[in-house]
Design a protein that fits this description.
The chain has 241 residues and is mainly β. It has four helices and twelve strands. The protein has a twelve-stranded mixed β-sheet.
Length: 241
């Protein structure tokens, strides 16, 4: 279980899938508005401290296509993602004590691994990366350095999800976030992230997560610890392409 790989993790963040956003055609130039960048910086700052529970659909047009459901428990200092797709379910959690991933099999006990300690980066070959869109991506957007941003069409309120303002991030600092379209509510809730072949869409929204939502289902073990014999280890593949 040293490498947790679920297709949805590749859908949840553009920085994982490395699919750049489609650039405007020469016949449809985009007007880059400095105030738009300032607005994105401000809302990303709010997003870093946002508290909510959201259910997202993640879809990819890659071959073969993949889809999954991601339940995000978001608090100012803690993020948990429950990712479910046809191949199974995993949990990713980032909190002040470290970064963890857990395998939640349909049969047998759950098992968890510690991927990094407090404030440490996850090794690239182990990083499930789905958490980036809810953590480090927000940090980069909030800093706003070297971003080129244009306004994108807003998304109307629907199904209890408020109106969202969208931002087309055309250029980003090296190693920061991928270009794409990011949509946030006025309070910083991420409602949509769209890249060339991947899209993450908020479908349901509820309140602040409870402390119990951040209790891991098993004591995390160091990376490299074999999975329990009764728990089939997921297929191993690079977490980022």
């Amino acid at each position: 279980m040293a490498s947790i790989t679920v297709g949805a993790l590749l859908l949840a963040a553009g920085c994982t899938s490395h699919h750049p956003a489609p650039l405007p055609s020469p016949s449809a130039p985009v007007s880059v508005v400095p105030n738009t960048t300032a607005q994105l910086i401000a809302v990303a700052g709010l997003a870093r401290a946002a508290n909510y529970t959201g259910t997202y659909n993640a879809d990819s047009s890659d071959s073969p296509p993949r889809s999954s459901v991601i339940v995000a428990f978001r608090a100012a200092t803690r993020t948990r993602l429950d990712v479910t797709e046809a191949g199974g379910q995993v949990l990713i959690q980032v909190d002040p004590t470290g970064t963890y991933t857990c395998n939640l099999p349909k049969a047998g006990p759950p098992s968890c691994l510690t991927l990094a300690g407090p404030g440490q980066a996850v090794p690239q070959n182990l990083d499930p990366s789905g958490q980036a869109l809810f953590t480090t991506t927000l940090d980069v957007l909030a800093q706003g350095a070297n971003l080129t941003v244009a306004p994108a069409a807003a998304r109307a309120a629907a199904n209890g999800i408020p109106l969202s303002t969208c931002y087309a991030v055309i250029a980003v600092p090296s190693g920061g976030v991928d270009p794409g379209t990011y949509c946030f509510t006025a309070t910083g809730i991420l409602t949509r992230a769209q890249f060339r072949s991947n899209v993450l869409q908020l479908t349901a929204l509820s309140g602040t997560p409870a402390d119990s939502d951040f209790v891991l289902p098993a004591t995390p073990l160091p990376v490299g610890t074999p999975a329990p014999a009764s728990t089939p280890a997921p297929a191993s593949a690079p977490a980022s392409s």
